[in-house]
Amino acid sequence: MNGLPTQTDQDDEPGSASPIRQMSLWPPPRSTRHSNRRARGMLVVAAAVLGGLVVVGGGVAWALFPEGEADADEAGAGGEGGIPAAYAGNWSGEMSQHDEAGEPVVDWGASLKLDEGTGRGSADWFTLGCRGSVTLVEDTGDSLVFEYAETYDPENHCIDETILTLSPGAGGGTLEAEWVATSRSGTVMTSVGTLK
């Protein structure tokens, strides 16, 4: 009308300065540049957490097992070097059991196996048909003290836990043994004998 181009005329002209270019209904593709950084960051955090757990676990183990106690199973809980050579080996003999009044209860055969330098062994009450393990709890210098824990008693007539004390015998190559236990009825039973 007055010679000036209208808005409609501008949209039709190529290269016109329209604020709207081609429009798409789909979002532009995402860049992977930031997601790779995120994955690396997650790996670093996971490694740091795992490292922290290892350090904390080591600290807990150190607190629970101070130096020297971690090997108590091998060296013997109460004996620094475990079972000495003089006590190590296979031993057997007859034990005589009596009650608190000194009255005889039963005689029974026993065998014992002790490994040098360890804190453990095995015991077999072959007359009674019972077996168990012994764990060294004290080395007094004159004797070794073990705790016995029963592992086999099919007829349920043996005492589950006893204290075994071994000392060198009067004759060479023998051990004097004393088992002390409390029966199910509460009676203290003592068995003594010589093992060869």
Biggest β-sheet strands, sense, barrel: 8 strands, antiparallel, barrel
Helix content: 10-25%
Distance between the termini: 133 Å
Low-confidence stretches: 60-78
Q: Characterize the overall form.
A: elongated
> How many separate structural domains?
2
Order of helices and strands: HHHEEEEEEEE
* CATH topology heading of the largest domain: Porin
Helix count, per DSSP? 3
CATH hierarchy: architecture of the largest domain:
Beta Barrel
What does this structure look like?
- Keywords: Membrane, Transmembrane, Transmembrane helix.
- The chain crosses the membrane at residues 43-65.
- Residues 1-35 are annotated as: Disordered.
- This protein has helices spanning 7-12, 33-64, 72-75, and strands at residues 89-98, 104-114, 120-125, 130-139, 144-152, 161-168, 175-182, 188-195.
- The chain has 196 residues and is α+β, with helices and mostly antiparallel strands.
- The chain folds into 2 domains: 34-64; 89-195, Porin (Beta Barrel).
- The longest helix has 32 residues, at 33-64.
- The chain starts with 6 loop residues before the first helix and ends with a strand.
